[in-house]
Write a structure and sequence with these properties.
- The chain folds into 3 domains: about 80 residues, PH-domain like (Roll), CATH 2.30.29.170; about 110 residues, Alpha-Beta Plaits (2-Layer Sandwich); about 160 residues, Alpha-Beta Plaits.
- Strands 4-3-2-1-6-5 form a 6-stranded antiparallel β-sheet. A 4-stranded antiparallel β-sheet has the order 8-9-7-10, sandwiched between helices. Strands 12-13-11-14 form a 4-stranded antiparallel β-sheet, with helices on both faces.
- By secondary structure, the protein is an alpha+beta fold.
- The longest helix is centred in the middle third of the chain and has 15 residues.
- The chain is built from 14 helices and 14 strands.
- InterPro entries: DM10_dom, NDK-like_dom, NDK-like_dom_sf.
- It is found in: Cytoplasm, Cytoskeleton, Cilium axoneme.
- Belongs to the NDK family.
């Protein structure tokens, strides 16, 4: 692919972990033609000639993010030149928002993107989100003493977009008033504070709130995360009477994705494209449970080692599978138009969400994602 002398491009320092061998590259990205090339830093030569990478966007290339280029999972380490740094920090500024878990948390997350403000044109996206419990040190550092209890589950979100810090500060009061969040709703006051707050919330090893009990695993696929659909999917799940007990943003390495989807190998033709999608960037894992009229279960301070006994009213598997809809969104739009895949899926590959297929695998899927993949020491190294 020929390069126009005046064509705009951006440069990033990336690493590729190939079977334990860490290789360093400079990724040059051409947004106009949606193409990329890789330069091997150690060997001082081109590793991949300029190639079309239509699934890769400039907004995906923030520091600390994992992107997929021709099935290679590359971790963005830094910006490789001043122009790239200035542009990225202006267009894709990141900030942190924290608020107490409540029944409107999907609406709050959706509102943070500014979709309901007619004057907003900054195209905010929730790029990372998790449900967590702040410890004493966290509360002191964030200045939330007296507002947040030491055992209260919270939602922590990374909001990305042009002038994101000011945007979240401006709408914070409106969001708090609109959804009656009386306890606390925190947004970073400046870019420097946002940087260390995001590190505190997402890089510090901490346990998630999963109980790995009677629920079902739902994964918001990477393409849905990139498209900014995460808040609306969470919102839709809660509005249909389900509870969300745990939320975690994570990246599935390609060999992990292959093993996790092994059930479909040789069974459905979409197996490899599904693996490609999961390996292409972060997904959002949810532990979902049917709302039970016997009363909601409290999220424990320390996750349970043994699953709690199932309440008599629990039919999460059947109800959530029906709510997710058929794997083909076109069929879902015909027979279950309000299902997740009907609303958020495009085709059989990019169908919005994945959820546990077999009832006997519900607990093992939850344990695999929340106890193994999302365990603190692994999250902290990504």
């Amino acid at each position: 692919m020929a390069m126009n002398e005046n064509e705009e491009y951006y440069c990033f320092e990336v690493v590729w972990d190939y079977e334990g061998n860490i290789r360093q590259f400079v990724l040059r990205f051409f947004p106009l033609q949606e193409s990329s090339e890789l330069y091997d830093v150690m060997k001082h030569k081109t590793f991949m000639k300029r190639t079309r990478t239509s699934n890769l966007k400039l907004s995906h290339l923030n520091i600390g993010k994992t992107v997929s280029v021709l099935n290679r999972q590359l971790l963005v380490m830094n910006y490789a030149d001043v122009k790239t740094r200035v542009t990225m920090e202006k267009l894709f500024q990141r900030t942190a928002v924290v608020f107490k878990v409540n029944e409107n948390m999907g609406d709050v997350l959706d509102s943070l993107t500014g979709h309901w403000l007619t004057t907003n044109s900054s195209n905010m996206v929730i790029t990372r989100v998790k449900m967590t419990i702040l410890d004493r040190e966290d509360i002191l550092k964030l200045g939330l003493v007296g507002q947040c209890g030491f055992s209260d589950p919270c939602i922590a979100a990374e909001v990305t977009g042009e002038d994101a810090v000011k945007h979240c500060q401006d709408i914070l009061a409106m969001v708090s008033a609109k959804f009656m969040i009386h306890d606390f709703c925190y947004a970073s006051p400046d870019p420097q504070t946002a940087k260390w707050t995001l590190s505190l919330l997402f890089d510090k090893p901490r346990r998630n709130t999963s109980v790995c009990g009677n629920g079902i695993l739902c994964l918001i696929k990477p393409h849905s995360v990139r498209e900014g659909a995460t808040p609306k999917i969470i919102q839709h799940i809660l509005r249909y009477g389900f509870k969300i007990l745990a939320i975690e943003t994570l990246v599935l390495e390609r060999h992990i994705a292959e093993g996790f989807l092994e059930l479909y190998r040789g069974v459905v033709p979409e197996y490899l494209p599904w693996v490609d999608d999961f390996a292409s960037g972060p997904c959002v894992a949810l532990e979902v449970e049917e709302f039970c009229p016997l009363g909601p279960r409290e999220i424990p301070r320390e996750p349970c080692q043994d699953p709690p006994p199932a309440p008599a009213c629990n039919q999460t598997y059947d109800k959530f599978r029906s709510f997710a809809g058929p794997a083909d969104p076109n069929i879902a739009r015909t027979i279950r138009p309000s299902s997740l895949r009907a609303l958020f899926g495009r085709d059989k590959v990019f169908n919005g969400v994945h959820c546990t297929d077999l009832q006997r695998d519900c607990q093992s899927d939850l344990e695999f994602i929340f106890r193994y993949i999302a365990r603190p020491e692994i999250i902290a190294t990504r």
